């Protein structure tokens, strides 16, 4: 068993335009934008969007990749996307997000069933891409 006090803090997504990405995640996905004004004013390196009280998605501009030197070799792989990020929602939240993405004209996969995840087997799931090509999965556990 893993340490129950360990939590996912953030995931960094590479984006072409962090302000536009924050707008997409706010309007189409329903996440709260953070530090957008500070980014626009040059006070911080990137804005974020809040997933929940414990987790955010950082929206890093591609130009930040060349400065990713915290570990040897990390600059060489910076800027490459992750496979996908999965958001778990309630049944109502799942339906509301799917409807909101449809209203914004965001292409989505068909609804899948019985996929395994952190909380067991999900009842329903689907995938979509943000404007920068980052893939997100959304799922609902029964």
Automatic annotation (TrEMBL):
One Pfam family here: Glyoxalase
SUPFAM superfamilies in the record: Glyoxalase/Bleomycin resistance protein/Dihydroxybiphenyl dioxygenase
Residue ranges of domain VOC in the record: 7-141
PROSITE patterns hit by this protein: VOC
Keywords: Dioxygenase, Oxidoreductase
UniProt keyword annotation of Transferase present: no
UniProt keyword Protein biosynthesis present: no
GO MF annotation terms: dioxygenase activity
Name of this protein: Dioxygenase
């Amino acid at each position: 068993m893993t340490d129950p006090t360990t939590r996912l803090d953030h995931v960094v997504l590479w984006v072409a335009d962090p302000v536009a990405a924050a707008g997409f995640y706010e309007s189409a996905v329903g996440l709260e934008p953070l530090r957008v004004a500070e980014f626009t004013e040059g006070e911080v390196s990137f804005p974020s969007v809040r997933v929940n009280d414990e987790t955010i998605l950082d929206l890093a501009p591609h130009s930040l990749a060349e400065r990713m030197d915290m570990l040897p070799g990390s600059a060489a792989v910076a800027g490459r996307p992750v496979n996908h990020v999965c958001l778990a929602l309630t049944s109502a939240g799942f339906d509301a997000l799917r409807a909101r993405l449809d209203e914004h004209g965001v292409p989505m996969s068909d609804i899948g069933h019985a996929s395994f995840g952190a909380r067991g087997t999900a009842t329903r799931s689907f995938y979509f891409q943000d404007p920068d090509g980052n893939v997100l999965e959304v799922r609902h556990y029964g």
